[in-house]
Amino acid sequence: MAESITKNIVVTGASSGFGALTVRALADAGHTVYAGMREAAGRNAPAVAALADYAKEHGVDLRAVEMDVGDQSSVDAAVEHIVAEAGRLDVVVHNAGHMVLGPAEAFTPEQLAAVYDVNVLSTQRVNRAALPHLRAQGDGLVVWVGSSSSRGGTPPYLAPYFAAKAAEDALAVSYAAELARFGIDTTIVVPGAFTSGTNHFAHAGHPQSAETVAAYEERYAGLLDQVSERLARLTPPDADPAEVARQIAQVVDLPKGERPFRVHVDPAHDGAEEVFDHGDRIRADFYRRIGLEDLLRPA
Questions:
Q1: Would you give the distance in Å from CA 97 to the centre of its chain?
Q2: CA–CA separation, 78 vs 34, rounded Å?
Q3: Which of 34, 161, 175, 216 is catalytic?
Q4: Cα 19 from Cα 97, distance rounded (Å)
Q5: What's the pLDDT score for residue 80?
Q6: Local mean pLDDT, 10-residue blocks, the chain (299 residues)
Q7: CB atoms closer than 10 angstroms to residue 33
Q8: What's the confidence (pLDDT) of residue 61?
Q9: What is the pLDDT of residue 152?
Q10: What pLDDT shows up at residue 267?
């Protein structure tokens, strides 16, 4: 049974894509939602205005908050602002992310580090700012927006992004157990490849080494375009990225302890669900074997 209690929620990377869809779905469900985004007064000012228009038109509580997940001081200030204004923070949705496309070798180590920073280290910054509040309450929910690429079909030319999302998933799994005794719930939402309806592919970064890209193009001519085209063909025409937002809203409204550990939203069915299910069963069995079964559910 769903809960009807209004929660205070922050969603990172909420200027576009899954994040923009999610903050609207959560606000429509009756929650107070803070849409975290950087440069709220600059390049994302149109997104802030769109949020304000949506809130007014639909009569919902949806607020933009300046949050650069690459800057700990910005994250700290955002969380402090939310807690001061709303009185508490109940749900954190880790959505911020960035995709890159190209041969793995053509990316510099610094570029890989930047991809890792956005997709992985950003969650650590937000957790270090938000979790003390959730722990003190003995209650809360952390939602991680992962990727089916962590365990499913992994086409070439997306290696830095895939590696980062796999790292994020591993971090989420460990955090789940470490937060359970504080009464904090965890759900990992696993979207598949949505080639339309979001800006992942349109805004993707590219490798710095043009010479290396050219060398790969000699053997893999046109592969970059082929990957996008074939993923699009594999995805049903009615695939709706808003389903990711709807699933997050449903998870938020479930009672503590009844939320699923993992939710799959993969219209292309790339195989991740089967592999994750197997891995999650092994994890649960292992915790039981070592006498830590209580860490599988929040206290």
A1: 7
A2: 9
A3: 161
A4: 10
A5: 98
A6: 80 96 98 97 95 98 98 98 98 95 96 97 98 98 95 87 96 98 98 68 82 96 85 78 96 97 92 95 98 97
A7: 30
A8: 98
A9: 82
A10: 86
Q: Is 216 a catalytic residue?
A: no
Q: How wide is the angle at C-alpha 272 spanned by C-alphas 267 and 274, nearest 5°?
A: 105
Please check whether residue 130 is in contact with residue 92, taking contact to mean a CB–CB distance below 8 angstroms: yes
Q: Cα(251)–Cα(143) distance, rounded to whole angstroms?
A: 9
Q: What is the pLDDT of residue 237?
A: 76
d(CA 183, CA 286): 21
Cα(178)–Cα(62) distance, integer angstroms: 31
Say which amino acid occupies 209: S
CA separation for the pair 200, 190 (Å, rounded) = 15
3-state secondary structure the chain: CCCCCCCEEEECCCCCHHHHHHHHHHHHCCCEEEEEECCCCCCCHHHHHHHHHHHHHHCCCEEEEECCCCCHHHHHHHHHHHHHHHCCCCEEEECCCCCECCCHHHCCHHHHHHHHHHHHHHHHHHHHHHHHHHHHHCCEEEEEECCHHHCCCCCCCCHHHHHHHHHHHHHHHHHHHHHHCCCEEEEEEEECCCCCCCCCCCCCECCCCHHHHHHHHHHCCCHHHHHHHHHHHHCCCCCCCHHHHHHHHHHHHCCCCCCCCEEEECCCCCCHHHHHHHHHHHHHHHHHHCCCHHHHCCC
Q: Please say whether the beta carbons of 40 and 50 come within 8 A.
A: no
The rounded distance, in Å, linking the Cα atoms of 77 and 168 is: 23
Handedness of CA 3, 9, 14, 15 (dihedral sign): positive
Structure tokens at 128: 């270090």
CB atoms < 10 A from the CB of 229, how many?
12
Tally of CA atoms within 13 A in the half-sphere of 184 that contains its CB: 25
The count of C-alpha atoms lying within 13 angstroms of the C-alpha of 92, restricted to the half-sphere facing its C-beta, is: 31
